[in-house]
Amino acid sequence: MLGPSDSRVRRPHGTFFDGKTAEAQPVSINVLSNGLQLYGERAQSHGSWSFEGLRAQPGLSSGAEAHFMHAAHPDARLVITDTSVLAQIKTLAPGALARRGPRGGLLRLLAMAVLIVALLAGIVFVVVPRGAGVIAGAIPKQWENEWGKGIAQQFAGQNKLCSGKSGRAALDALTARLLDTEAARNSGYSFTFSVIDTKSENAFATLGGQVVVFSKLIKEMKGPDELAGVLAHEIGHVTARHPLTGFVEAAFTMMFAGLFGGGSSDMGGSMATLGGVLAVTSYSRAKEVEADEIGARILNQAGIRLDGLADFFERLQRSAKGTNSKALALFSTHPALGERAAQIREMGDAGTTSRPALTPAQWQALKGICG
Q1: Residue 152: strand, helix, or coil
Q2: What is the 3-state secondary structure (H, E, C) of 190-242?
Q3: Residues 6+ apart with CB under 8 A from 99
Q4: Per-residue pLDDT tens for 336-359?
Q5: Would the CA dihedral through 312, 315, 321, 323 be positive or negative?
Q6: DSSP label of 96
Q7: pTM of the prediction?
């Protein structure tokens, strides 16, 4: 049986924390048949801990050291470093050292982790999308225009802008015709259209009416009516403020990622990142349908046949079979391209007199805008 040999503890068996102060107090331990008697440096008693309420702390105990808590002393902690004391406890009260705690503690940690992940997922995928539309609606278009110009400048700095004189003139003629419609005029935006020289097929709208078209997309099109349809569709996204809503969603997602992951707070880098997000944004079914409907109204009012946009979607659907093209995937959002093409054809105004979006000469000039 162990206990203090004189009025002072010559070799402590462990350390005692009374829970009232942060002081670590060396203790000697007298192992009794029903528990532990604790003594301080000057043989003063720190009380007795019965085996009945004694438990090793989860994850903190090993063969050479054990951390204990006690049901009757919830704030106190006892660290035993003497292996002979631990051996006696293991013999007299094996349950005190049983590994019941760690599993429960691990399960609690896992449960907390799952709860946190679920909470964050709820914020990112439910709260943010629902609130983004409300927030976007409250943002003045003047702010959006300034942000859009900044993103467009950053994007232009990373890519070659195409500015062939005759090709630019043809693009201006086409976009002027699309914008000279009630649907576009009532949007409140001043649109800017740019063509960049790339080997990818894409077109997207960013903030403030900035619309970017990739040169390869133009080269792969079968006629100007297809390009007119794509541009009208992108104007539809801007008019419905879809890029701004996507921008707000991405901003909140990045903010939460920064809060929980220690992300960068560099605004310039963040704006560039958000601009890149808009270039590859895939909109929801409802937003794509809305952009199709607005685009169809613009084409009808501009006197351009809707067959071009419908043909473009159908051709993409045929081309997408058996390919992993990311560019095609950007246009292949819900609903299916074939369904969208059929719906667009039904939106055509039979009473509208139509003419080609561009003359053959203008179309050839536009296809060569990058030189």
Answers
A1: helix
A2: CCEEEEECCCCCCEEECHHHEEEEEHHHHHHCCCHHHHHHHHHHHHHHHHCCH
A3: 56
A4: 788 899 999 999 876 667 899 999
A5: negative
A6: G
A7: 0.61
